């Protein structure tokens, strides 16, 4: 059973095998996010107010970012599994299940906003409950948008602390990236984090399958299509 350290070590090895692609996938999504933000600013500068045109451009941009992010996660899943990833898939897969990917990310955002409006602590807890919804949207094309969120809640049940520690273990890298003006994040930290995140998801998903918390039918998969990778942080 893989520990957090083992997952991270394997992620580093897998990234090293496809480093160029791992970097480019993240860069493309960052550029999409940057361009979307600049378009928002340009519309506001031209119109001078947050009118209908501004919000149209904003939400179209957010929709593209949401779907591109799911596609990005799908490529990091391939990298962790040792499959050939493609940076171009961020664009080429844009039309594949677009509404489902967009709906899942949009619902997750709305749910989190509502939880944070209640109280900070419940919002944080739900953040980790929904943590793997994007992974499920990328990994399980037959799972609906809302069901992806529900399955994430079941997979993460009893493991939120482990996920929190996993994220926290990258804090030092992100702080160090600030001192390199983000260059370290682009070239190393982000590909490393997202690939390790893919590994953590796969381990917890397969543990949930083993424990009967979820079924292959829930994931819209045949049993033989899922690779067994048991998970245990205590080893």
Question: Can you put this structure into words, describing what you see?
Answer:
The structure is a single chain. It contains eleven helices and no strands. It has helices spanning 4-17, 19-47, 52-80, 89-92, 98-118, 120-129, 133-139, 145-156, 160-168, 171-178, 183-210. The chain is globular and about 55 Å long. Helix 7 (133-139) packs across helix 8.
What is the topology?
Elements: H1 4-17, H2 19-47, H3 52-80, H4 89-92, H5 98-118, H6 120-129, H7 133-139, H8 145-156, H9 160-168, H10 171-178, H11 183-210
Helix pairs in contact: 1-11, 2-3, 2-11, 3-5, 3-7, 3-11, 5-6, 5-7, 5-8, 7-8, 10-11
Kindly list the characteristics that best describe this protein.
235 residues; mainly alpha; disordered C terminus
Strand fraction? under 5%
Could you give the count of β-strands? Answer: 0
Gyration radius, in Å: 18 Å
- SSE succession: HHHHHHHHHHH
Could you estimate the helical fraction of the residues in percent? over 70%
- Total helices: the number is 11
The coarse silhouette is globular
């Amino acid at each position: 059973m893989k520990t957090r350290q083992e997952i991270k070590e394997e992620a580093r090895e897998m990234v090293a095998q496809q480093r160029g692609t791992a970097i480019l996938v993240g860069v493309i999504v960052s550029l999409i996010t940057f361009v979307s933000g600049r378009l928002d600013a340009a519309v506001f500068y031209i119109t001078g107010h947050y009118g209908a045109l501004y919000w149209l451009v904003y939400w179209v941009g957010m929709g593209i970012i949401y779907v591109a992010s799911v596609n990005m996660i799908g490529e990091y899943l391939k990298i962790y599994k040792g499959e050939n990833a493609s940076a171009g898939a961020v664009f080429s897969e844009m039309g594949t299940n677009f509404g489902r990917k967009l709906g899942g990310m949009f619902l997750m955002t709305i749910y989190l906003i509502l939880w944070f409006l209640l109280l900070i602590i419940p919002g944080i807890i739900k953040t980790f409950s929904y943590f793997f919804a994007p992974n499920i949207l990328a990994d399980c094309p037959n799972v609906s948008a809302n069901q992806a969120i529900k399955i994430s809640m079941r997979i993460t049940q009893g493991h939120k602390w482990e996920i929190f520690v996993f994220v926290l273990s990258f804090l030092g890298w992100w702080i160090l990236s600030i001192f390199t003006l983000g260059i370290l994040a682009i070239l190393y930290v982000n590909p490393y984090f997202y690939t390790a995140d893919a590994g953590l998801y796969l381990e917890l998903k397969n543990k949930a399958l083993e424990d009967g918390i979820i079924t292959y039918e829930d994931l819209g998969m045949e049993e033989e299509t899922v690779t067994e990778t048991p998970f245990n942080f205590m080893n």
